[in-house]
Amino acid sequence: MVRQSSRKAAQAKTKATAAVAQGESESKVEVDTKTPKRKAARIEPEADGEDAENIDPVEENDGGTKPAVKKRKAASKKDVDDTMPLAARTAVTSLKHAMHIGAHVSGAGGVQNAIQNAAHIGANAFALFLKSQRKWTSPPLADEAKTQFHAMLEQHGYDARKHILPHGSYLVNLAQADAAKATQAYDNFVDDLQRCEALGIGLYNFHPGSTGGTTMDSACARIAEQLNKAHKATSTVVTLIENMCGSGNVVGSRFEDLRDIIALVEDKSRVGVCIDTCHAFAAGYDLRTPEAFAKTMAEFDSVVGLKYLRAFHLNDSKAPFNSHRDLHANIGTGFLGLRAFHNIMNHAPLQGMPMVLETPIDEKGPDGKTVENKQIWADEIKLLESLIGMDVESAEFREKEAELQAKGAAERQKIQLQVDKKAEKDAKKGTKGKKGKKKTDEDSYDESD
Ligand SMILES: [Zn+2]
Ligand SMILES: [Zn+2]
After folding, report:
1. Which stretches are tagged as biased composition: Acidic residues (predicted)?
2. Domains in the chain, start-ordered, CATH in brackets?
3. Ramachandran assignment for 157, one of left (phi > 0), alpha (psi -120 to 50 degrees), beta (any other)
4. Which of the residues are catalytic?
5. Is 56 helix (H, G, I), strand (E, B) or coil?
6. Each residue's pLDDT tens digit, 241-296
């Protein structure tokens, strides 16, 4: 089992590398989410946590796989951006709406480094991984890291209770039906929650998981059961379920899934939702026009309840509406477009929530190597803040909108072609009967971020 998975991992790695060569992948974004034969690949250039190595960009949610380890940590890579900030943080009080915008930054070298990395890009909120997101076990949170985390919080004035949103491990599937694997998932999950509480962090975001071929109802019940247990083992941190873009075995692409989990959570004060804009759009929830945005928010309210909405992941989408593909695009360059983000920025009820960019920042350096350009996040934060109170009919807005759409045109066209081709293929397949009902986790549970 392990050997076979390693082989698969190696194959997927080759594909991931190929994708990079084509300039197709971006940081923390899956390449393909639907086709079983094309195993999803994640490209994550930096090792998070205290790792001295990088882990291959492949993960299973299922615990059966040991990721291949590649020792290629660049000696020169710095864990902390302690140079001149790329942008100054905007005083949230100066904004017409108190929007706390930031990005998923690196906590490599210790969680305390994430604070400086966030400040460096002018973020007023941020996400991070609390430990290596690709390993089942990590060393406990170091006292030193904890002390420094609190000191850095003080120095930079972030409210850990409200504006830091750690992201759960990609390995964890709380819907896991297998008892031993469910325990492994739970242990990892509750360990993260305990880290949150040690650091004074109030919110924690995770992917609901995969049914593994069981019914959606039973999967939601297992997730709720795990949450109940984890809530009892901890005392304050609020667990936020992220909406997903997929269909099939993935839990959470419909608001109804989120509702069904929350319904079975005993302590409702400990559960909420984080909406990823790219996932919502790809799952068929439109956000582009004020009317569509209002409709989606109203649907969320009637199905789940607005009081559960606690955070956002702000990503544009390289894939078209309802395509069930998870391809994050830079703000304004994707199929969502700048207007969708204008809608969000000007929706007063969303004030005070952490809003986290997971947009691609990888660029090809002059030597052909991929480098991260964090200026992209610094600029996107300022762009989003500038949308607050902006008139969409103004020349300023229209020019920016056109400029960003032009920038993403080729990429959108490319993905649109892929989606159209797949739809054509599926339509042909449909006449020959549907493919096998029982899909494995591996085939279906491959969303990212
Ligand atoms: Zn996520
Ligand atoms: Zn995603």
Report:
1. 46-62
2. 79-444 (3.20.20.150)
3. left
4. 134, 167, 170, 207, 242, 276, 279, 313, 326, 328, 358
5. coil
6. 999 998 789 999 999 999 999 999 999 999 999 999 999 999 999 999 999 999 99
